Amino acid sequence: MMRLDKVTQPLLRRHMAAALLLAFLFxxxxxxxxxxxxxxxxxxxxxxxxxxxGPGGIGSATRLSAxxxxxxxxxxxxxxxxxxxxxxxxxxxxxxxxxxxxxxLILLSAPDLPEGPAIALPDGPVHAPLFTVGADVSFGQIxxxxxxxxxxxxxxxYPFARLHHTAYGQPAHSGGALVGTDGHLAGIVxxxxxxxxxxxxxxxxxxxxxxxxxxxxxxxxxIGAAIRICMLNLDRHxxxxxxxxxxxASALATSCSRSRNRQNMDLAAQVLGMKGRFDEAIxxxxxxxxxxxxxxxxxxxxxxxxxxxxxxxxxxPHLSFLMQHLPDDHQILRLALQAGIWGGDRALAEKxxxxxxxxxxxxxxxxxxxxxxxxxxxxxx
Length: 381
Fold this sequence. Notes:
Strand content: 15-25%
Distance between the termini: 39 Å
Strand order of the largest sheet: 8-7-11-12-13-10-9
Number of domains: 2
């Protein structure tokens, strides 16, 4: 019990700060709402999205019915209720519905939610363009953003695979909606960065509902506790530069794996890699890819970790995959050039060089020198 208290206190302070910030920013919500430049069905989705505040920070929630909403579980951690901000600026409570669903989604029940439209679920395949609709903390609004494309669809046969796309997102959009031009839900915004974003497919909501309710309280509490401990461990170890002990590395990897949130696994793996714990980092990234082989950010993190560890032969297959789906990414091309030379795949290095010539000619002189006269291969770590 003492261990959870130590986790709860900093998260509670974060939750209170987030709630105060939201209360201030969204107090003039109705007056501040700006004109929407997206297609009318996309703009209409804004009425189904609400700003929320939880232990994981400021986020969004998407209305599914008169009193039911869905959001990302990492925003909730193990809390039993969250604050929901209405268009008027009024705050109401939303109860967290216990769930054993092993993905980053959870349902909210808000009996006091005013009448309003629920989001439309998809009636066919998801097509680009896709639009993110979520809370914009900077402007105190629910906004619909400019469209993006699909990078990779959810991988077939992987129940927790995500939709990977380029529709703009930021942390407060987590729990918001990714929709098509018709305004129908493609997925719930979950994570991303550097132009690569992820959404949990709308089809997952049916499975979430089947695994939610009072009967799932014990499993729900266990997942919530793991999320809290994972968040605390991430905050602590990202903030300092000291090496990790074996016990600290194990606690970080275990708690973030048990959180059932692939993004937490990626973040924990990044911390482990930065601390030189390459074997543990690689194991976590590989576990993430076993859950979603199309996870571009996880695969990118794994490639970088292999590169830092000078394990270029193991890195090459992942770079080949990334070059296929992100052919213009400058970091991937640089890694592929180096790993191809040092890992014995000259064809990969030359392919990367040709692509650098096409997309980043300023980098070409350095790339040419490396291709023609590479320095000695770094020692494997």
